[in-house]
Write a structure and sequence with these properties.
This protein has one domain. By secondary structure, the protein is mainly beta. A three-stranded antiparallel β-sheet has the order 3-2-5. It has a two-stranded antiparallel sheet with strand order 1-4. The protein is elongated and about 45 Å long. Helices cover 5% and strands 34% of the residues.
């Protein structure tokens, strides 16, 4: 998974921003006892890019997984944009 972080006012890349990725099984997977949550962190490079490599194990349930990205950087307000 590759993301790019940009300043919403200037459209310039934001370097050295902390990006937290959390992946959880969907509610249907939780009902069958699959409760493993994966969390990874990365920092953006000078171009605002962060890359995550996520592997789904051979015994993982198929389906939709809940994914959350949180981005933090000094002097920036946290804001959710879909």
């Amino acid at each position: 998974m590759s993301i790019t972080v940009r300043d919403k006012n200037t459209d310039q890349p934001v370097s050295n921003a902390l990006v937290l990725l959390t992946i959880q099984p969907s509610n249907s997977n939780l009902s069958v006892g699959k409760t493993t949550t994966t969390t990874q962190t990365a920092y953006t490079d000078k171009d605002g890019h962060a890359i995550f490599t996520v592997q789904i194990g051979p015994h993982s349930s198929s389906g939709i997984y809940n994914t959350n990205l949180e981005i933090k950087k000094d002097n920036y307000d946290s804001n959710l944009q879909k």
